[in-house]
Hints:
- Chain A: Keywords: Membrane, Transmembrane, Transmembrane helix.
- The structure holds two protein chains of two kinds.
- By secondary structure, chain A is of the alpha+beta class.
- Chain A has two domains: 3-93, no CATH class; 100-189, GMP Synthetase, Chain A, domain 3 (2-Layer Sandwich).
- Helix content of chain A is 56%, strand content 13%.
- Chains A and B meet through helix 1, helix 2, helix 3, helix 4 and helix 5 of A and helix 1, helix 2, helix 3, strand 4 and strand 5 of B.
Amino acid sequence: MSQSTLIRRLSRRETHSARSALSIVSGAVLLILILWLVVELVLSMTGNAPLTLSPAELAERTAALATDTLPAALWGAAAVLVLLGLVLVSAAILPGRKSRHVLANPRSAVVVDSQVLAGAISRIARNAAGLAPEQVTSSVGRKRVHVVLDPASGRAVDTEAVRAAVQKHTSGYELRRPLAVSVTNAQDTAVGA
Amino acid sequence: MNSTHRGLNRALLGVLGVLLLAAGALAAVAGTSRGFALAWTRTGTRVWARIQEELGAARILESDVSWWTAAVVALLLTLGALLVWWIASQGSGRSNQLARTEAPDGATAVDANVADQAVKAALAANAAVLYASAQSWRVRSSHGETGLKLTIQARTGASPTELMDAVGQVVDGLDGLLGIQLPVLVRITAGTRAKFSRTMRVA
């Protein structure tokens, strides 16, 4: 495997979910079910009393399940089963992207939390606008970054200058997927401003 | 960087999901249509009677137990063992050895701690880094079997470019120290420490 292929593979794995948690939970539930079945089978083979339900009784009840159960209960069970099924199928199909970004680098695969980028962008924005740390909020998405400035009332802030400063810095990050920058002034949208 | 079988995870979750959806659909139809419910019970009872016949025909040494039951227990135990393997394989692939060279008069092994200590020492004085660590993982590549993962916890507001420059120097230093270029993954994170420490005001 060449270095660039390996870097791409490592970056991809680091920015997408492995579905480990859901796999562990599903595996554990299935394991408990299987162990219970084995215990019941062994108990019935050795002629002991069942823990909850003997295998023969379980088979009989499953065979007659549709007529022995109230339609409303069947509906309830169907709703729960379909919901769980949808969760698992969507986990299998959806990409499961994490809120992380890849920095282009020839030597290493570099993956940065979006939160780290947001922190850096906030610092740039508040230096450009001359504001305190609490007055700037940034959120970094997959394709865009949004900066909200909240200056003291009556103080003018040049949002275009802030946008240009943030743009200049983010283009220097060499992000694999460039971010579109938008800056808004919270005072412009405040009631009674 | 771990060697979790991601495709397998998704495939198994997908199969389980489709099975649950199918069971849900069956229950829904049985709850709506009385005719389907009756057919279910009729078929079910017939199949169960057939199974009991087969069970009776294959008894182990005149006992009440059928060979089929024993086979089902064995199958379930195998499935259980596979499930344990599936669960245990999540997040696996850590290794303690960074590199190893064989020579006629002996072998040299480099422990993963060497990289960890080197990275910690190199970044200790960096104000933008709250915590740094290195861990080696099994990775298939042209340079052998090991890859290195550097985890850097950044102070809020730290510039990613400057962090990357600092980490790049550390990686170059390690390359020189080890004499080989291991595959490297750098993770710059905003962990819990970043929430409780001061913000970078200048950089």
